[in-house]
Amino acid sequence: MTVRSTFKGRRPLKALAPLISAALLPGCFADAATAPVSGAAPRLPDNDKVAEPPEDHPAHPSFSPIHPADLIPLAADEEEEDAQDPPDVAESSDSEDAPLGRYSLYVEPDSHPAQQASTWRTSDPAGAAAMDRMAEQPTATWLGDWDNDVARTVDNAVTTGAEQLRVFVVYNIPNRDCGFYSSGGASDADAYATFIDEVARGLDGRLAVVILEPDGLALTTCLNADQTVERQEMIAAAVDTLTAAGARVYIDAGDSAWISATEMAAKLIAAGIYNAAGFALNVAHTESTPDTIGYADEVRAILGDVHYVADTGRNGIGPDDDHTWCNPLGRVAGENPTLSTGVPGLDAMLWIKPPGESDGDCNGGPTAGAWWPEYARGLMETA
Predict the structure, then answer these.
(1) pLDDT digits (tens, 9 = 90+) for 307-363
(2) Which residue numbers in the chain have pLDDT < 50?
(3) Among the options 70, 132, 147, 177, which is catalytic?
(4) Which of 145, 328, 343, 370 is the most core-located residue (most Cβ within 10 A)?
(5) Is 155 a catalytic residue?
(6) Which residues lie closer than 8 Å to 347 by C-beta, 6 or more apart?
């Protein structure tokens, strides 16, 4: 059973100071996220044969893939920000606190929210408007064992993105999700290394952001000591391979209400954090951005000046009182994705898990990874 740390709670107000600015507050109330186009359904576990997760099990990321046939090039942006204000962009891109500031994020034009907006245009104009707002936001492309040609998927995605930055999530570690709703992954360490090599082949030296193995370090209750060490070694090797192929790699580090900063820092060191771009927090979870920043500061106080990214896709009002992990109801989309956060060490706020996709068949939701339009609309109605 996963036991979440209870020592954290709300972060001190000083953690809020860099966040409360005119640049960030509009994102709390404005638009929300795009989900990748699913194409053929990923392989999903038979939930009747899977042990029921404990109530405190972390949220499970989505794993709907984008298939190459679904990738449609975007037209040139007529309001290119770089063309409007190149001096400021250059300053941002050269800043140690905005290493990705010169880039923009790719928005999938035929995403689930975009398709839903089209479906609802006549029958539900208000719902269509909510989905239009969600469709304006970029989300990540998830890579895992459902993709038979991951190198081609990555290559097509980066090529389609052109000058826009693509964000990938590598989610294929052996014993993924410890047999719960998102179970699966590579069969063993050799198969995992081959998969990582294929991701690297698709990148082919081109810049992309890679979020590496959501819950992979935090959720190890199904592993013995030797398997835990092996997993850390697999992640460390993946960091090296993907970094050499052009990626900025962020190792997943759970969320602010799960594992102590001291323990997570040790796990990150064992997994090669000093060879990575940094770590990722709150992927598919709902912990608030101020709490996430406060926790990141604790981890960084141990590790040194290591950067991080945070998932804000559905954390606009933080978690519920029980920190519900699976399809938490009544949640709200958080800050819009940005590569210039104004927060020291925070390289990006991203919608890493497509907010309208289900965590599993709980709280009335469909199977893990399936698009859930009613839930997506709920995230947007009060955002």
Answers:
(1) 999 999 999 999 999 999 899 999 999 999 999 999 999 999 999 999 999 998 899
(2) 1-94
(3) 177
(4) 343
(5) no
(6) 98, 99, 100, 248, 250, 277, 278, 307, 308, 309, 339, 341
215 is catalytic: yes
Is 136 within 8 Å of 74 (Cβ atoms)?
A: no
Q: Are the CB atoms for 123 and 35 separated by under 8 Å? A: no
Alpha-carbon distances, residue 243 vs 157, 164, 247, 274 (angstroms): 18, 19, 5, 12
Burial of 286 (0-12, 13-18, 19+ CB in 10 A): buried
- Per the document, the length of the chain is 383
Write down the catalytic residue from 70, 145, 215, 255: 215
Domain boundaries, the chain: 19-72+83-381
Topology of 19-72+83-381 in CATH?
A: TIM Barrel (3.20.20)
* Direct distance between the N- and C-terminal alpha carbons of the chain, in angstroms, rounded to an integer: 34
* Structure tokens that stand for 102 in this block: 């010169």
| Active-site residue flag, 177 | yes
